[in-house]
Amino acid sequence: MNTSVINSSLPLNHPSSGSGPLPWYEFDLCKDTPHAFVFCYLIKVFNLVVGFPANIMVMWQVARKKSDSSTSDIFIFNLAIVDAYFCLMTPIELLNRLLLNNKHIWYFQRFAYGIKDTTPLFLTCICLDRYIAVVHPIVFTGIRDNKIRVALSILVWGLMLSCALCKSVVGEDSTINIFTGLILTAFTIMVFCNLSIIWILRKSVMGKEKMHPMKKKAFRTVVITLAIIVFNYLPPVALFPFAEYYSILEFKCHISVIVFSFMDLSSSIEPLLYMSKMERPSCLANLPCSCCQSPFKE
């Protein structure tokens, strides 16, 4: 897209001009269609109210696990850290966008968005870990050492921080191609892994009347995870490769805002999915209320 055209459409109170409080929209050409931005900030508030405490709960649950820990817990813990950080940025962003208009905070905000753009890397690691465990169990037995997963997590953090710093300092346009390639690759790997797991689990029970409870639980979890992956990440996969074919109004005021809103929502959906499979704390074990029961328990 033509950057000069975008810059010429900036309002006087845009952060690049350094004057006045910001409206709900970022560009002057979006002033007549602010609906996508209102939706975006409703998602952000939802993430702050629901997603942040949910991610803290996930981190606490993973940290207290001992004998029953999963090999994917390292990736889940790191993903929860990233999502909690992003959710916590909401009040800072609202305050800066509507009142402060501080250019230094804008760098910090772009850094947070750069981190969020690359969170599918940890989700991809989780899918790959489960894929190897189900489809290649012999190989998985030889790589159960968590040192491998710690090293992979460090590598992912290095990639995430590099992309986030580039987006923060250079600008969003500098990372759009990187983001598009990353989201396409991650989405393809995640869908392939989950479909392969579903196929293996279904194949293992062909000719049998009932699926083993543990396999049934794993099957249901993978199906739900696949649905969430498609819901959150299919929009950018389907729309961003064709960004050059949209008008600036369509892309900046509608498509990119809605697409990123769906991705932002993953910061709440992912921990809520994990929490739905948690064991109830011992202090709640004797409570009769059905709302405390996980909907995914057999």
Would you give an account of this structure?
The protein is mainly alpha-helical and 298 residues long. It is 70% helix and 0% strand. Helix 9 packs antiparallel against helix 10 (248-276). It is globular, with a radius of gyration of 21 Å.
Give keywords.
298 residues, disordered N terminus, disordered C terminus, 10 helices, mainly alpha
Into which percentage range does the β-strand content fall? Answer: under 5%
Radius of gyration: 21 Å
Biggest beta sheet attributes: none
- Total of DSSP H or I helical runs spanning 4+ residues: 10
General form: globular
Task: Find the count of extended strands (DSSP E, 2+ residues).
Answer: 0
Q: What structural class should be given to the helix and strand makeup?
A: mainly alpha
Q: List segments where confidence is low: pLDDT < 50 over at least 5 consecutive residues.
A: 1-23, 280-298
Secondary-structure element string: HHHHHHHHHH
Q: Quick gist of this model?
A:
Helices cover 70% and strands 0% of the residues. It is an all-alpha fold and 298 residues long.
